[in-house]
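Example for tutorial group B:
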């Protein structure tokens, strides 16, 4: 599978348009920005299209790097798949050609032997030799068929391994490596997949939470302890939410929960439950008697039909900042 199949003329036009867009945005024409701009103009990758809709002068570099990493991952995975599939197909074709030649030869030999058997003046000894040749020929055919079955079984096994590698690559590309919950790419996909089910009776809501004074935890106890706190919160969210809910890491110390079939009232109740659970938790520092008290601020919003994901999440984010402005360790809901 080739990543780029455009003709020279088409590619040249795309490159010129990409450079014109870069010039208009007054950003550096470096390889990252060029590839991101080129892919955006191709309009083939939904993730790239969605991300580039969010671009402005302030966030371009951050979003461009995220988009570039996505493209690089996609290309590396597909190139790996192409290499394995090409090898497997080549091997099967070669084996089939050999098998086809063997079968043709054996068929000719069988026809010749059977024709000889039909001769009226054939002696019993000659007939016996011909029958022996026929048996050998049939046995060779059976052996070749068995070898081909074994080859196909090997190919099938390699395809299973390849499928698992693809699944692992997909999971890695959509998972936050520190906490094991979804990343922003996974969030965007979950949101898109959930939209079709949104109705007045089946709303979609989200909670964004930010750990209060997380920097102080890192400063006082070190980043390893800070990482442990993030993993603890990810586990807590998984334990206290429904299986259909999406849990993701939204930023450094921000997490998001997206809840299908959940109205604003129920989402706010869940946010309050999460807030209390976190407030009551006292995490023990390893090799120490110290315990860390945790609190977080929560912002909640319910999706309004027709709005873009950025607007939806921004409303929850603004509710989060309202919770911080109100003194932290509280829940605020967007209305």
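The residue assignment follows.
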């Amino acid at each position: 599978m080739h990543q780029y199949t455009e003709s020279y003329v088409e590619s040249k036009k795309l490159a010129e348009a990409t450079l014109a867009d870069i010039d208009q945005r007054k950003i550096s024409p470096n390889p990252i920005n060029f590839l991101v701009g080129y892919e955006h103009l191709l309009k083939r990758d939904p993730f790239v299209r969605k991300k580039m809709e969010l671009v402005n002068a302030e966030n371009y570099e951050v979003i461009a790097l995220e988009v570039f990493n996505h493209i690089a991952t996609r290309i590396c995975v597909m190139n790996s798949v192409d290499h394995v599939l090409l090898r497997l197909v080549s091997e099967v074709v070669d084996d089939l050609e050999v098998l086809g030649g063997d079968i043709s030869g054996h068929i000719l030999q069988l026809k010749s032997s059977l024709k000889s058997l039909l001769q009226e003046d054939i002696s019993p000894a000659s007939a016996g030799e011909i029958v022996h040749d026929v048996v050998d020929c049939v046995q060779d055919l059976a052996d070749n068929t068995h070898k081909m079955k074994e080859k196909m079984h090997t190919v099938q096994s390699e395809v299973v391994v390849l499928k698992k590698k693809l699944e692992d690559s997909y999971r890695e590309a959509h998972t936050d490596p520190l906490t094991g919950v979804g990343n922003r790419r996974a969030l965007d996909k979950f949101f898109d997949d959930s939209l079709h089910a949104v109705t007045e009776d089946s709303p979609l809501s989200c909670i964004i939470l930010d750990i209060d004074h997380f920097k102080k935890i890192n400063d006082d106890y070190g980043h390893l302890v800070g990482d442990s706190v993030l993993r603890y919160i990810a586990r807590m969210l998984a334990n206290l939410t429904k299986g259909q809910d999406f849990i993701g890491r939204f930023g450094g110390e921000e997490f998001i929960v997206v809840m299908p079939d959940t109205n604003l009232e129920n989402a706010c109740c869940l946010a309050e439950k999460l807030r209390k659970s976190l407030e009551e938790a006292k995490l023990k520092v390893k090799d120490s008697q110290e315990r860390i008290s945790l609190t977080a601020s929560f912002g909640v919003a319910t999706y309004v039909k027709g709005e873009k994901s950025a607007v939806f999440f921004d409303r929850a984010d603004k509710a989060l900042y309202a919770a911080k402005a109100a003194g932290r360790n509280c829940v605020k809901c967007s209305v």
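The radius of gyration is 32 Å. Compare this with the pattern of hydrophobic and polar residues in the output above.
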